[in-house]
Amino acid sequence: MPKELLLAQESSHRWYRDITWTQWRVLIAAWGVWVNDALDFLAITFVLRDIAAAFHVSLDTASLLLLATYGVRWIGGLLFGGLSDRIGRKIPLLITLTWFTLGAVATGLSWSFAALAVFRLLLGFGMAPGFSLGAAMVAESWPEKHRAIGIGILDTGWGVGAIGAALAYEFVYPHFGWRGMFFVGLPPAVLLGLFIIFLVPESREWKKRATAKTTSWRENPVFELFSKYPKRVSYLALLIFVLCFGSWPFQALLPTYLRAAEMSPAAISEITMASAIGQIFGFVASGFIAEKLGRRNAISVMIAIGALFVAGVVMSAGNVELAAACSFASGFFLVGSSGIWGTVLAENLPRDVRATGVGFLYNFGVIGGGIAPYIVLTSMRQGGFSMPDAIIGFTLAAAAIGMVVIRFVRETKGLSLVEVDRESDA
Question: Residue 179: which of 309, 282, 47 has the closest Cα?
Fold first, then answer.
């Protein structure tokens, strides 16, 4: 067959026709967990002022609840990842879904700020593997040439969860207060758990690798990750930390800033939902952008453009329509770029430590996201900065640093997971 005709047939072939129903079910399960994860976590960003008032603490102290959740995620990601590399992906995915859902419910039942902090710590520990396990499952089940697209679609769950949190603030919060926000995720979590139990298979790639080895400490995936790949772990951890830090002044503090500007709940919901919708499109597009430009260039371009639009949304908060448009673009480019992170991590780690490594690295990185709001609010109080200046300044600075750090990461476009395994074995 002539080469031109072959290329024409390939270009007209729809990528989604290559995906089997079994592979779609894996993606749906992982995506659903990520939706609920985002819904349960992001609910708190809308009610930080209410929590501060209810328990008589300052706003920057209340923002430490974000750090409490994110600060322990690396532990949960490491332990759940190690468990997943030993017993498979499916059971740990069910455990994490149950864990963080109950953690959210406990948040709504908190009787003191100390109890609330403990429940957010527990929620963070349990929500840690929500994305990393899903990314490992999709990477191991989807065709190599569509892997980045699948993981990008997986990441849209965060945007959908953000929309859910915004809708809960608009419709649930006025009637049930801040506590009611944390019960919204319970019904969908029950349905999703049943779907995973009965319709989602265990990873075939994990089954192929699984053997009847003894479980000595030297064969532990956690030990292997740090003993065999210390340099790789170090630069990937730094990358995700910087990228997370750069997106969270916008994600965590936008609702708080809009409330300080005395905007109505409907306007706040509209602007934050615009960001969430932008994230969904950005997550999907990120996979295609990564396949076109490569992983490193795609992340660099998206965070640079996204950071500029963050400045736009903060400076135009008085104009709801303009702020919503800039918020959409910020979500698409800045937050949407994280759709590539899972691909970069999964493609840099061999199968035996993939879930462990992705679980640890992603959740170590998000400590940057947890500490960012506190640093922004503290800089405002101690340095006399306004909230708009602090959000814009830290976002732009982190984007610039991220564009430098990403150059030290190996480009993995076109690299198969088999090649990663062979290199690591060698």
Answer: 47
Residue 328: which pLDDT band, with cuts at 50, 70 and 90? Answer: very high
Separation between Cα atoms, residue 256 and residue 247, nearest integer Å = 15
Using DSSP's 3-state secondary structure scheme, residue 146 falls into: helix
Q: Is the pLDDT of residue 145 over 50?
A: yes
Residues 6 or more apart whose Cβ sits within 8 Å of residue 356: 78, 81, 82, 84, 85, 221, 222, 224, 225
Contact (Cβ atoms closer than 8 angstroms) between residue 257 and residue 390: no
Give residues with Cβ within 8 angstroms of 65, minimum separation 6: 44, 48, 51, 116, 117, 120
Q: What would the pLDDT profile of 84-116 be if each residue is shown by its tens digit?
A: 777 778 888 899 999 989 999 999 999 999 999
Which CB contacts under 8 angstroms, 24+ apart, belong to 168-172?
168/39, 168/43, 168/46, 169/43, 169/46, 169/47, 169/255, 169/265, 169/268, 169/269, 169/272, 170/265, 170/266, 170/269
Confidence of residue 28 (pLDDT cuts 50, 70, 90): very high
Q: What digits encode the pLDDT tens for the residues 342-396?
A: 788 888 887 777 777 877 887 788 788 878 888 888 888 787 788 888 888 999 9
| 263's tokens | 């905007």
Token digits of residue 184? 């919204």
Which domains, and CATH codes, for the chain?
Answer: 19-201+225-425 (1.20.1250.20)
Give the position of tokens 């937050």: 335
DSSP conformation class of 411: P
